[in-house]
Specification:
The structure holds 3 protein chains of 3 kinds. Chain A is an alpha/beta fold. In chain A, about 35% of the residues lie in helices and about 10% in strands. Chain A has 3 domains: about 50 residues, no CATH class; about 260 residues, Aspartate Aminotransferase, domain 2 (3-Layer(aba) Sandwich); about 130 residues, Alpha-Beta Complex (Aspartate Aminotransferase, domain 1), CATH 3.90.1150. In chain A, helix 5 crosses helix 6. Chain B is of the alpha+beta class. Chain B is about 20% helix and about 35% strand. The radius of gyration of chain B is 14 Å and the shape is globular. By secondary structure, chain C is of the alpha/beta class. Chain C folds into 2 domains: about 260 residues, Aspartate Aminotransferase, domain 2 (3-Layer(aba) Sandwich); about 100 residues, Aspartate Aminotransferase, domain 1, CATH 3.90.1150. Chain C has 14 helices and 13 strands. In chain C, helix 6 packs parallel to helix 12, helix 12 crosses helix 14 and helix 13 crosses helix 14. The longest helix of chain C is centred in the C-terminal third of the chain and has 39 residues. Chain C is globular. Classes of the chains: A alpha/beta, B alpha+beta, C alpha/beta. At the A-C interface, helix 1, helix 2, helix 3, helix 4 and helix 5 of A face helix 1, helix 2, helix 3, helix 4 and helix 5 of C.
């Protein structure tokens, strides 16, 4: 079933909105050459507008519909209260440039959220400004650069990045003007210490460490890693993408992390929104706080004000962060408290280990260890070698669930990365195990069923090669 | 499908080939490279007049799932680029040693050709790589 | 579950964490019930002024516009809100088609050929546009000329983004709107020149000379535009701009104390492979039916890693959705009407303020819906009394940017400001200085 484009529903003269008449005298018009003569936007009625977008929404799969074990994305359920607090008029309808005396409630909320993130990490300086994890990373790498420069140490040009890292790590590194150098993993999925030691030196500015790693594994010798990096005069950046496993279980500062970003849309249950907005606050140890991006909300004597840190890397976006997302995250933390957050981390790790145990033997497991919040399988089936991980994923769609992450991390061939999160019931986890087992059976009995899947989705497999070769990026491109 | 090797070409470890024509050379990617990339959707080539040293990155080749840098087998100045690839990048898949050529260069130092592999040596390299996988 | 895993306690799963560091005491306020949390947050929200209950004349990068009910309702559908990035296109056609429609409508609005699926906000889309221009010049040109009429927050963001690069930023003084002088500074080393139209002071000017000069020297012209103004103004695309960016918040997104918003970004087709951020393209499925997919991902960080066009790996999905639905709801005539309401109301307010004793308009250039006034007193102090005595959120006091501007205020008028509100502002401005 396909839905027409909104432009195909357009009919001259229609408009979905009624606007007031001008209630002041008209001013002189601008000269004609400044004005546009056409504006090719659709013309639709409110009724057609609403149906069109409701029908489109029905072509989507979403967490609210069912299981969404997309590894490294933490697709947990988003409590509804978050949506209501974010839409309170005093938050949603307040202008960011209102004088501080007219925004005391918002500034207090920002301070309280900063305090909570500091308490969870042991890192005392927090800026809520970065718009997403990737922007938090850029802020973090720029702070590392600013820190070394402030000490007159300008020889450090290299950022070490483990081979399991998200692609954002090297990309952020390059944007900050550093050279990314890869560090290998060992057979247990940890950073290979020998390789690390051989690459450390006075040219190294820092390391970007994801812990638990993208393999879902806790770095077993993390204290040795961070000590070695510090001994070389470099800083440790903690990629907080996988913090859901560790909330309340350990403070990253005590593992030797100097700077870390959060993905509030993963760990703190703000909605993913079909790809955003995210929110990527950064936390740093106290001596790095002067470098934080800002402005930042701070407590003055008896009120809250906005403040630019002394040696700030600057503003990394306009205003103070993805505010309504910050309201949602604060709401979540307030609902759960410290114990609740720890419970969430424990349940997430329990669920992932349960799936890993139940599917052991069904799919190859490249790392035979207790996992954290996610587990990585190889999507290879013995005796059905021409079935690929992608085929297994697409077949899951027919069973009414969202597939796991495919082909990441890059070091696992045919990776299938499963992150159940803490919000799913045991019945849902068991159903997932049954689905994987049925698909593996089908791979033997009728592999075409997998290779041609999905069969029950709104559309079949889409031709990505044609899309990239004959670019049609808007309805104007169709001639 | 079996991987093909053009006997008239010299090869690099990064899977580019060069076919020498007097002081000029046509450059492309090997049949093995195109098969690994799968459906090529875009090739970024330099401008005529740009010069590169041996092994320097002169362009990028993209499929839907991967992107790979192109290294120049020997130093030279670009004298012609294959404009057909703009609209039909699939030529790289269909005819990697022929219509799917990428650029033509004026070779700076013919001596650098000595560092490249002939078809036989390159075939041996690919066979070893396939065995390991 | 524990026995299924083969452990006797949850603690066993965490043994990998050094024991001395495990389960630290975390001091957070105790958990509350939903009812209590709602009450606490409501109390905090109520300590803010807001634009629904107080007339607001603030703009300066965030704008108070009407949000149609239909837009909020459809954008808040669970299926949109709780989906992830559409990496499995077969079950994400809703999100993908909306992005395609958004890209199409941004192209129509800006007069450009290609739009991405959005960046974080207007400030970051300008920063990304400058990095893009540097990439297009293959790093061979390092000069970046920035007009002083660009929103100062955007300029700060550009400085933050480029501090690790070898780009040389040259910005003219704050509020310096002389584009002819800017045009003369363009040379063969210039990667791009960026201007904002209407500029931070609300002023309008012609882009023709600047576009000519940029293209004569092989530099790119980047223009920051307020999308509502494009309901009536000729778009930068029509003047030959190469990249057009701006904040899409005014297109139906709530003010929300500064975010989340969206940065729109559009360019000429020849530059599509240097455009950062997500792109959606049309294709067909195995049965030949129309469908949409993320495309050109080989430019992006998950494939290109350190060679990617940017590190961005999200878009402002929900805000983009709202912007698309808003553009569709307003359509061709509605957006023009909104723009005209803004224009006429602002001009009425400006002309009446100029008549007040002690007040004057600082610039006599044509403007859209924002203008700077010189007040007979410190603008910040004046704003305080405007709120306390008249319940009005006044314009942006420019003294926070530069002390010499402490008497100046940037006033914004939109379709939300009724004639009554404007009269109240006039009365307030007049009386608080008497």
């Amino acid at each position: 079933m396909t839905e027409p484009l909104i432009i195909e529903l357009s009919s001259p003269g229609r408009c979905a909105v009624s606007l007031p008449k001008l209630d002041v005298p008209q001013a002189a018009e601008l000269p004609d050459e400044w004005l546009r003569d056409d504006l090719a936007l659709p013309e639709v009625s409110e009724r057609d507008l609403v149906s069109h977008y409701v029908r489109l929404s029905q072509l989507n799969y979403a967490v609210d519909i069912g299981f969404y074990p997309l590894g490294s994305c933490t697709m947990k359920y988003n409590p509804r209260i978050n949506e209501d607090t974010a839409r309170l008029e005093g938050f949603a309808a307040s202008h960011p440039l209102q004088p501080a005396v007219l925004t005391q409630g918002s500034l207090e909320l920002l301070c309280r959220l900063q305090d909570a993130l500091a308490a969870l990490t042991g890192l005392e300086g927090v800026s809520l400004q970065p718009a997403a994890g990737a922007q938090g990373e850029l802020a973090g790498v720029l702070m590392i650069r600013a820190y070394h420069q402030a000490r007159g140490d300008t020889a450090r040009k290299v950022m070490l990045i483990p081979d399991t890292a998200h692609g954002t790590n090297p990309a952020s590194t390059a944007m900050a003007g550093y050279e990314a150098v890869e560090v290998a993993s060992d057979a247990r999925g940890n950073v290979d210490l020998d390789d690390l030691y051989s690459k450390l030196g006075p040219q190294v500015a820092g390391i970007m460490l994801t812990n638990p790693s993208t393999l879902g594994l806790f770095e077993e010798r993390i204290l040795e890693v961070t000590a070695a990096v510090h001994a070389a005069g470099a800083l440790v950046y903690g990629d907080g993408a996988n913090f859901n496993a560790l909330m309340g279980k350990v403070r990253p500062a005590e593992l030797g992390i100097d700077i870390m970003h959060f993905n509030l849309h993963k760990t703190f249950s703000t909605p993913h929104g079909g790809g955003g907005p995210g929110s990527g606050p950064v936390a740093v140890r106290s001596d790095l706080a002067p470098f934080l991006p800002g402005p930042i909300a701070v407590r003055d004597e008896n009120s809250y004000v906005l403040h630019m840190p002394k040696h700030s890397i600057g503003a990394i976006k306009a205003f103070y962060g993805q505010f309504s997302i910050l309201v949602r995250a604060y709401t979540y933390i307030r609902m759960l408290g410290a114990e609740g957050l720890r419970d969430a981390a424990e349940s997430a790790v329990l669920a992932a280990n349960y799936l890993q145990a139940k599917l052991r033997g069904t799919l190859p497991l490249p790392y035979e260890r207790t996992c954290m919040h996610e587990c990585v399988f190889e999507g290879r089936i013995k005796g059905a070698e021409d079935v690929r991980a992608l085929d297994i994923s697409k077949r899951m769609i027919d069973y009414g669930i969202h597939p796991p992450t495919n082909y990441f991390p890059l070091i696992v061939p045919e990776a299938l990365m499963v992150e159940p999160t803490e919000t799913e019931s045991l019945a849902t986890l068991d159903r997932f195990v049954e689905i994987v087992q049925s698909i593996v059976a089908e791979a033997h009995s009728n592999p075409a069923l997998l290779r041609e899947a999905p069969h029950n989705a709104p559309v079949g497999r889409l031709d990505e090669v044609q899309a990239a070769r004959r670019l049609i990026l808007s309805w104007h491109d169709k001639g | 499908m079996a991987i093909r090797f053009d006997q008239k070409c010299l090869y690099t470890k990064s899977h580019e080939w060069i076919r020498v024509d007097d002081e000029f050379g046509y450059i492309g990617v090997s049949d093995y490279a195109q098969s690994q990339l799968s459906d090529v959707v875009y090739v970024e080539v330099p401008e005529v007049g740009d010069s590169f040293s041996q092994g320097e990155v002169f362009g990028v080749i993209e499929s839907v799932k991967a992107a790979s840098e192109l290294n120049l087998p020997v130093a030279g100045e670009v004298v012609e680029v294959n404009l057909d690839l703009e609209d039909t990048p699939e030529l790289v898949n269909k005819d990697p040693y022929g219509d799917g050529w990428l650029v033509k260069i004026a070779i700076e130092d013919l001596g650098e050709l000595d560092f490249l592999m002939d078809a036989k040596a390159y075939e041996a390299l690919i066979k070893r790589a396939q065995k390991q996988a | 579950m524990l026995s299924g895993i083969g452990v006797s306690s949850i603690d066993e799963l965490f043994e990998v964490i050094p024991e001395a560091l495990r389960d630290p005491e975390i001091v957070l306020p105790p958990a509350l019930s939903e009812l209590e949390v709602m009450a606490e947050l409501r109390e905090m929200a109520d300590r803010n002024a807001n634009t629904h209950t107080s007339p607001c004349f603030l703009g300066a990068g965030a704008y108070n516009h009407f949000i149609p009910s239909a837009v909020s309702h459809i954008a808040n559908r669970s299926e949109f809100v709780t989906a992830y990035t559409p990496y499995q296109p077969e079950i994400a056609q809703g999100t993908l088609q909306v992005i395609f429609e958004y890209q199409s409508m941004i192209c129509a609005l800006t007069g450009m050929e290609v739009s991405n699926a959005s960046h974080y906000d207007g400030a970051t889309s300008l920063a990304e546009a400058i990095l893009m221009a540097s990439n297009i010049a293959r790093g061979k040109r390092t000069r970046v000329l920035l007009n002083g009429g660009i929103n100062p927050m955007y300029l700060q963001t550009v400085r933050t983004y480029t501090q690790g690069t070898d780009l040389e930023l040259e910005s003219s003084p704050l509020l310096d709107g002389d584009v002819d002088a800017l045009a003369e500074r363009i040379d063969g080393q210039t990667a791009c020149v960026a201007v904002q139209l209407p500029d931070f002071a609300g002023r309008l000017f012609s882009l023709e000379k600047l576009a000519d000069a940029a293209h004569r020297h092989g530099a790119l012209l980047i223009v920051v535009q307020y999308p509502i103004a494009l309901g009536m103004l000729k778009p930068a695309g029509a003047y030959g701009a190469d990249i057009v960016v701006g904040d899409g918040q005014p297109l139906g997104n709530a003010l929300s104390f500064g975010g989340p918003y969206l940065g729109y970004m559009a360019c000429r087709r020849e530059h599509v492979r240097r455009l950062s951020g997500r792109l959606v393209g049309e294709t067909v499925d195995t049965h030949g039916r129309r469908g949409f997919v993320l495309t050109l991902s080989a430019r992006e960080q998950h494939i290109r890693r350190e060679k990617a066009t940017s590190n961005i790996c999200s878009n402002q999905g929900l805000n983009m959705l709202v912007a698309a639905m808003y553009m569709a709801a307003m359509g061709k005539n509605g957006l023009r009407q909104v723009a005209e309401l803004c224009y006429h109301k602002a001009h009425y307010a400006a002309s009446e303020i100029a008549k007040l004793p002690g007040y004057r308009l600082v610039y006599d250039a044509p403007f859209f819906n924002e203008f700077i006034i010189e007040c007979p007193a410190n603008a910040e102090a004046l704003n305080k009394r405007l709120y306390e005595e008249y319940g009005i959120i006044g314009g942006y006091a420019l003294g926070s940017l530069e002390a010499r501007l402490e008497h100046q205020m940037l006033v914004c008028v939109t379709e939300m400001n009724t004639a009554d509100q404007i009269e109240r502002l006039l009365a307030g401005l007049k009386e608080v200085v008497q």
